[in-house]
């Protein structure tokens, strides 16, 4: 039975991949509009030292934001800060370490950030791993679920009070969370969120990206109920040529390099465009609870609109990271 489930999961992922490739073949990446300056606003970008995270941090700084690059490699982080400064960006850029594989490290990062007495207007949950070998985080969580999802779940909740206080109803704070088209084939087993009964790297990755969309929508539901000036949206960058693909199997990498690089894969800058739009665009002021792809609002998987599923995942997530559900 588990073998059949595994084969079906791979087939679903393959079909989603084909769909994304065909869409990108016939639809060019959108061009960012002229965006408003962001002087005086502060952003945190996880995974901001490389790939799409770097391009996001770089663009926000060019718009005048004070950007905090959050990553687990000090060397990479400081190099990213140096490069952005050398470009003469309007905004300030700095680096702080949180290891999203460690709940303790996430809490320490939030403590350090709050000690700075800065406001927080934008949180971009960008960091992630993809198709890594089976492993666990410092706290014993399956690696994709723990880093991609639980680390960001805890980070966002611990920074939510700061986001609420920094936003205004005519200039909301924004939470932007990176998902993926693989969420359409993600499956949540509430009895085995860690995938211990039958591990699949593809299944674990797609589940983590599905969990991020469910989290995004439920967060917006709570924000709206409380009347807070914060919006929460999920974005899908499409197929982007980043280091995440280094964990593909050898035949897949061999196929990707000559074909996808030429025809399908987007550059990190192109992939970051939707995150940048969601973080800054005037036309999205006050707009939350959405899934954006290629700069446009798109329908996500049917299950993401199920309130009961979202509520149950939120409840279990609070228990796993040690938060009181509220």
User: What's the order of the H and E elements?
Assistant: HEHEHEHEHEHEHHEEH
Distance between the termini: 38 Å
Number of DSSP strand runs: 8
The parts where pLDDT drops under 50 for at least 5 residues are: 243-256
Tell me the radius of gyration: 19 Å
Strand content: 5-15%
Shape: globular
**Which strand order does the major sheet show?**
3-2-1-4-5-6-7-8
Q: Average pLDDT, to the nearest integer?
A: 88
Derived from helix and strand composition plus strand pairing, the structural class reads: alpha/beta
Helix content: 40-55%
How many helices in DSSP terms?
A: 9
Report the major sheet.
8 strands, mixed
Question: What tags apply to this protein structure?
Answer:
about 50% helix, alpha/beta, eight-stranded mixed β-sheet, about 325 residues, about 10% strand, 9 helices
What are the SSEs and their pairings?
Blueprint: H1 2-26, E1 42-46, H2 51-62, E2 66-70, H3 74-86, E3 93-96, H4 103-115, E4 122-125, H5 143-166, E5 173-178, H6 201-226, E6 230-236, H7 250-263, H8 268-280, E7 291-293, E8 296-298, H9 307-321
Helix pairs in contact: 2-8, 4-5, 5-6, 5-9, 6-9
Please tell me about this protein's structure.
With 326 residues, this protein is α/β, with parallel strands linked by helices. It has 9 helices and 8 strands. It has helices at 2-26, 51-62, 74-86, 103-115, 143-166, 201-226, 250-263, 268-280, 307-321; strands at 42-46, 66-70, 93-96, 122-125, 173-178, 230-236, 291-293, 296-298. Strands 3-2-1-4-5-6-7-8 form an 8-stranded mixed sheet, sandwiched between helices. The model is unreliable at 243-256 (pLDDT under 50).
């Amino acid at each position: 039975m588990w073998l059949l489930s595994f084969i079906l999961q791979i087939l679903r992922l393959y079909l989603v991949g084909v769909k994304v490739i065909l869409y990108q073949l016939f639809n060019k990446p959108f061009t960012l509009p002229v965006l408003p300056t962001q002087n005086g606003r502060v952003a945190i970008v996880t995974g901001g030292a490389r790939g799409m995270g770097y391009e996001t941090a770089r663009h926000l700084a060019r718009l005048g934001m004070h950007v905090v690059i959050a990553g687990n490699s000090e060397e990479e982080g400081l190099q990213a800060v140096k490069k952005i400064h050398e470009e003469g960006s309007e905004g300030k850029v700095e680096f702080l370490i949180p290891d999203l594989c460690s709940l303790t490290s996430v809490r320490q990062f939030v403590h350090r950030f709050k000690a700075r007495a800065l406001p927080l207007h934008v949180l971009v949950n960008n960091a992630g791993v993809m198709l890594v070998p089976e492993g666990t985080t410092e706290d014993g969580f399956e690696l994709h679920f723990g880093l991609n999802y639980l680390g960001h779940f805890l980070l966002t909740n611990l920074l939510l009070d700061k986001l609420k206080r920094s936003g205004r109803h005519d200039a909301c704070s924004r939470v932007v969370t990176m998902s993926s088209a693989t969420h359409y084939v993600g499956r949540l087993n509430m009895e085995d969120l860690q995938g211990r009964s039958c591990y699949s790297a593809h299944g674990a990755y797609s589940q983590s990206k599905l969990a991020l969309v469910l989290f995004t929508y439920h967060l917006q539901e709570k924000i709206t109920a409380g009347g807070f000036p914060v919006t929460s949206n999920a974005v899908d960058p499409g197929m982007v040529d980043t280091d995440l693909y280094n964990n593909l199997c050898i035949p897949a990498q061999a196929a990707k390099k000559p074909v996808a690089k030429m025809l399908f894969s987007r550059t990190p800058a192109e992939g970051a465009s939707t995150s940048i739009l969601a973080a800054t665009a005037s036309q999205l002021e006050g707009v939350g609870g959405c899934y954006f792809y290629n700069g446009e609002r798109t329908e996500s998987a049917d299950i993401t609109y199920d309130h009961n599923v979202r509520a149950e995942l939120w409840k279990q997530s609070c228990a796993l990271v040690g938060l009181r559900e509220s």
